[in-house]
Amino acid sequence: MAIVDVRSMSPDEKEAFHREAETRIQPLGFTPPETDKPKDVELLGRTERMRTLVQIVKDGGENNLHYHTNTDTSWVVLKGRVRFYGLGDELIGEYGPSEGLLIPGGARYWFEKAGDGTLELLQVVAVETGAKGERINIERHKGWMEDREMLKVYE
Predict the structure, then answer these.
(1) What is the spatial distance between Cα 24 and Cα 26, in angstroms, rounded to a whole number?
(2) Most CB atoms within 10 A, among 13, 22, 24, 135?
């Protein structure tokens, strides 16, 4: 998406700009899927620069040490508890409902469900304009990742 300077637009151009953007408003919501998978990911909405998802993590749904290129990601716990770790399994933090963190592109991390019950994490991914975001694994991927090629890329 190009950088927009609305101050240089005529009133008609500005109105057209707003109307076009308003056609792309998306309602968000999800119903947790009824599966026996250790992890499910539900896409809530997507634009050229942002993806909003919910990750539903059950026992065995932890991931491996990895990082992302050209993206920054915010994580907020909706339900349950999560532990985020960095390089060498150093604890970054443990978070509960209405808590989370922002992980800039290039930062190495992994996370796991903490405690009993299902973990639901809101994930908001901002993608650099015109760039491709990619997940790069540092450690071996988990078994539940086998069915998704994008989760099997290594440095």
Answers:
(1) 6
(2) 135
